[in-house]
Amino acid sequence: MIENAxxxxxxxxxxxxxxxxxxxAKDIRDRSERLKVYARQVKDTGLMADATEIRLRSERRLGExxxxxxxxxxxxEGRPINGRGDRPFSRVTLQEAGVTKDLSSKAQKRAKxxxxxxxxxxxxxxxxxxxxAAKPINGARSVMASRKEDADSLDxxxxxxxxxxALLEIVLPHxxxxxxxxxxxxxxxxxxxxxSGVLAEYGNRVIASDIASYDKGGRFPxxxxxxxxxxxxxxxxxxxxxxxxxxxxIITNPPFDDKALAFALRALELARAGVALxxxxxxxxxxxxxxxxxxxxxxxxxxxFSERVPLCKGRWDPDGSTATAYCWLVWRKGAPRLPTFWIxxxxxxxxxxxxxxxxxxxxxxxxxxPGGTYGRILADAQPDEPASASxxxxxxxxxxxxxxxxxxxxxxxxxxxxKAGFALESTGGAIAEVLGTTRxxxxxxxxxxxxxxxxxxxxxxxxxxxxxxx
Length: 470
Prior knowledge:
By secondary structure, this protein is α/β, with parallel strands linked by helices. The protein has three domains: 130 residues, no CATH class; 198 residues, Vaccinia Virus protein VP39 (Rossmann fold), CATH 3.40.50.150; 101 residues. 43% of the residues lie in helices and 9% in strands. Helix 8 links the parallel strand 1 and strand 2. The longest helix has 27 residues. The chain is elongated, with a radius of gyration of 26 Å.
């Protein structure tokens, strides 16, 4: 019933009239918001007015059910109590019911309105929309801050890898989330894999999809599962996924304009643990987004970049610049809202890897090497057997095609060898032999690698000491 509650309009009204569950009333309200977003996209004011009416009526019904639950002692603040006597149901809190305090207050106000007053209110709101009073207000806008795409555009603006690492290494730890323990992560607008390629570096299961396929020569973006429209019902289900909600986190750079709001609402519906969206700072503005999203469901944290994050249409430009401000919005389900957080300056330099050009300028993005980047490929190389290391490096380099991609391999991997306890005296020479360069050049490249975690910082120290002794 609920899958079709908003189409047609009469069916939604009948569903609300028969509704006796807080969950169902809230679900119909949430679906009306998605219908309103779609109506805006297709510029159907009649459908937009219908969606608004359904939202208001569902809020009123939700308010009636909340009041009845309170009167029956089934809902309140604090810990639930066991049912007894004339209270056969356990008491639940608003949070447990999935209803924010703002939505509860709004819904109960609507429920307390007299019938004629409420119907008059509905008529006024419909008139605003159909008469044009609810059209978006456009003021002076920065040209670079107002990214606009044609209706048939795929809206492909790749996210720089360092900006995704800022989410994983700075923002998520700040809210108590281990980026290496996210579970199954879905990137539903993956493009060529600029976000999914970073997610794959942290050991989680990554599922990537998009409305179009960006494969080339039989090679797909990191984590690729299937071509899929994220806003369709039912949602995509990867092979082997359990029934019900299967994605722990949904992390993406959503399309711009109204599709971004639809993406946000859909992601919050489908993710079990949390959602992270990379958006323009300007996207936080707007009455429509407040009413549909932020008013009732603000993010756990708003993380603003202190430095600019340059995006280019159809490609990543490592040397690009921009006048647009970007941020990460993160919802961690069940977590309290936290104060605004600023991502410190300097992350573009600190979180850019020497190998990024080789991986992220490829079409599509190349997968990170498995096993802590290089561990599995180098597992059988012994410190006292340079030939063994040389064989491994020959196989590794052969898998990459361009000098830039090979640069990714040997600059990053010398440090991985140090972490694994290999001696640079032997392995540095083996790498140099395979690549036709010198051991000093290998070590110089490796010494410029950005190392953020303690193990890598230790590796950098070891590398510098070894370099100084050579």
